[in-house]
Amino acid sequence: MGLGAMAPVRVGVMGCASIARRRILPALVAVPDAEVVAIASRDPGKARWFTEHFGGRPVHGYGALLELDDVEAVYVPLPAALHAPWVEAALLAGKHVLAEKPLTTNAASTRELIDLARARGLVLRENVMFVHHHQHAEVQRLLREGAIGEVQSFHAAFAIPELPPDDIRYQPDIGGGALLDVGLYPVRGALHFLSGELKVAEAVLTTSARHPVETGGSAQLRTDTGVIAELEFGLVHAYRSRYELVGGDGRIIVDQAFTPPADHRPVLRLERRGGVEEITLPSDDQVTNAVVSFATAVRMGAELDDASVRQAVLLDDIRGNASLLPPS
């Protein structure tokens, strides 16, 4: 739900990243629940260009953004390794924070920031947008109604084709690598749909001679009740974005699961002994939904959940337990 007659949340943007330009800033401009009041960059020219297109005033430097009294919330699309210090600085400055995923590059830092936000009564949201798409709520409804019986396994994959060699996702010093960038999605999917505590049973990370980070991998997780989650991810692979839930009486398959375009009409495939049913849903914009959800949490108040911490713990454990396969 939106905020109705309540004042829009005044947002400052910390950095001029591609995802800010392509996704979040257009949503911040479009929804009545938020207002862009400032955009900061270390490059004054870039900040001016962004404000000319999205509004607000340009600010030179991230620290200067946090000093602005009219900024009550900050969106942080910086490289992953820069999230922890700047999210902490924003929280200490009394700002609510929407940070791009991953919130940090390790579980300890993620837990510290969540605890800090909770102690200061601030909203801290990791921008995992797919959980705000209504297709997953429909899947959860089907599961609750017993459409496939008791869930026995979850299978998910998210992979994208190779990017230009200078892309930040191939730079290890700023938090690059397939696990944190694309592996996060199937891990969060497992947390989203499976109850009970998840543990890493086994994992593999793969490398490429062309890049200094892991470029793919797989992991098997298990819940304390024996449900298995099999996950795959990659940065130099054919595009895949899907998950499948298998139960005793059937299965649910979702394609375009993690990054569907706003005009995409999802089709849930429900396979049971009696046949196959395809459930077509209306299109939905998960980017707008994520922005509205954050603004609503700021205005209405919301308990911080521990999904980001549990996700970070699993990502740490996958890396810690993974076998590393060299380039073939």
Automatic annotation (TrEMBL):
<dbReference type="GO" id="GO:0000166">
    <property type="term" value="F:nucleotide binding"/>
</dbReference>
<dbReference type="GO" id="GO:0016491">
    <property type="term" value="F:oxidoreductase activity"/>
</dbReference>
<keyword id="KW-0560">Oxidoreductase</keyword>
<dbReference type="InterPro" id="IPR036291">
    <property type="entry name" value="NAD(P)-bd_dom_sf"/>
</dbReference>
<dbReference type="Pfam" id="PF22725">
    <property type="entry name" value="GFO_IDH_MocA_C3"/>
</dbReference>
<dbReference type="InterPro" id="IPR000683">
    <property type="entry name" value="Gfo/Idh/MocA-like_OxRdtase_N"/>
</dbReference>
<feature type="domain" description="GFO/IDH/MocA-like oxidoreductase">
    <location>
        <begin position="137"/>
        <end position="252"/>
    </location>
</feature>
<dbReference type="Pfam" id="PF01408">
    <property type="entry name" value="GFO_IDH_MocA"/>
</dbReference>
<dbReference type="InterPro" id="IPR055170">
    <property type="entry name" value="GFO_IDH_MocA-like_dom"/>
</dbReference>
<comment type="similarity">
    <text>Belongs to the Gfo/Idh/MocA family.</text>
</comment>
<protein>
    <submittedName>
        <fullName>Putative dehydrogenase</fullName>
    </submittedName>
</protein>
<dbReference type="InterPro" id="IPR050984">
    <property type="entry name" value="Gfo/Idh/MocA_domain"/>
</dbReference>
<feature type="domain" description="Gfo/Idh/MocA-like oxidoreductase N-terminal">
    <location>
        <begin position="9"/>
        <end position="125"/>
    </location>
</feature>
